[in-house]
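queue> pop job 88
queue> type: inverse folding (structure -> sequence)
queue> payload:
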């Protein structure tokens, strides 16, 4: 549109846009291609950096924590060993671009939004918001992933994914091979969104997830965020829930809620449910979200990897046990 109105050369427009946004200019003669961009690596590097950049009007983050340093009482001491850190995103900018369409069949060819092949831009929307980044402890996560019971459990989900037409669609999200940490982090994101909807007042449909669970990139975290369609963004309620001591309490309540589903034991013992049998212990009563909140269309979910089951050790199983023992001791103490 700028070119038509001013007659300016493409190279000049690219240079001006790059100077205004700080982004690299598009190579001359190039244009965005559908389906060839993976932003998760750069996003994770920005959130996981030791030194965060100076706040701007588009991106402002700060490192936080659970506020449990030196804590000796349970379940807080055990919870602290499972979490590496919290990053609060006071302001984030999200751009959603329409790269193309698939017609007739879900696994059909992706047709570019620019069917003529002459444009160098894509239709997009821009929103501002806030979020919470949760990072798991790397050493504990690696040890948990190496458990043969976890490996065997995830192998079954991986087999179902390989047989599904969604395998190719989800490759950019889950990586070349579905990993236990992705299933864990994705389920954790769903459970956390459901709990935050009770604690913060946001509806589940207004919260979204970004799962950073690809071990080849060193990813081990998730982002829960909300965004509004105006320049003002949102009002800070979600970030407030991520501050100490609120977030540690939210995590404990989330684990307690995740340990039981109204459809149990059927849900907990399921060997394949949902679209393409890509879920295990996850249903509408315990883990599923509105479609707009989930990266994978409410697939690749399993509560057992979070809280544990008869045959699978959950990553947070010992936290849940410590919480229950503390609650039982408190009740017994009050009765004496």
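queue> result:
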């Amino acid at each position: 549109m700028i070119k038509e109105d001013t007659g300016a050369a493409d190279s000049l427009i690219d240079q001006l846009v790059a100077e205004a946004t700080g982004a690299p200019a598009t190579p001359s003669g190039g244009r965005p291609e559908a389906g060839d961009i993976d932003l998760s690596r750069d996003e994770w590097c920005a959130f996981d950096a030791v030194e965060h950049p100076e706040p701007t009007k588009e991106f402002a983050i700060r490192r936080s924590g659970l506020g449990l340093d030196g804590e000796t009482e349970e379940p807080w001491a055990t919870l602290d060993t499972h979490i590496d850190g919290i990053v609060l995103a006071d302001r984030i900018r999200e751009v959603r671009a329409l790269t193309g369409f698939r017609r007739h069949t879900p696994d059909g060819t992706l047709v570019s939004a620019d069917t003529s092949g002459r444009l160098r831009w894509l239709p997009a929307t821009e929103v501002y918001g806030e979020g919470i980044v949760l990072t798991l402890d790397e050493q504990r996560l690696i040890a948990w992933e190496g458990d043969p019971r976890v490996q065997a459990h995830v192998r079954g989900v991986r087999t179902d994914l390989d047989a599904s037409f969604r395998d190719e669609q989800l490759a950019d999200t889950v990586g070349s091979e579905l990993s236990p940490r992705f299933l864990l982090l994705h389920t954790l994101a769903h459970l956390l969104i459901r709990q935050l909807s009770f604690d913060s007042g946001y509806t589940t449909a207004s919260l979204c997830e970004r799962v950073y669970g690809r071990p080849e990139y060193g990813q081990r975290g998730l982002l829960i965020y909300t965004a509004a369609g105006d320049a003002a963004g949102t009002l800070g309620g979600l970030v407030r829930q991520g501050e100490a001591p609120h977030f540690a309490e939210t995590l404990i309540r989330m684990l307690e809620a995740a340990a039981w589903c109204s459809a149990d034991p059927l849900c907990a013992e399921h060997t394949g449910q949902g679209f393409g049998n890509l879920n295990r212990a996850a249903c509408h009563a315990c883990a599923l979200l509105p479609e707009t909140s989930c990266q994978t269309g409410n697939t690749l979910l399993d509560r057992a990897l979070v809280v544990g089951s008869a045959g699978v050790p959950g990553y947070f199983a010992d936290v849940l046990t410590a919480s229950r023992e503390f609650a039982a001791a408190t009740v017994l103490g009050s009765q004496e």
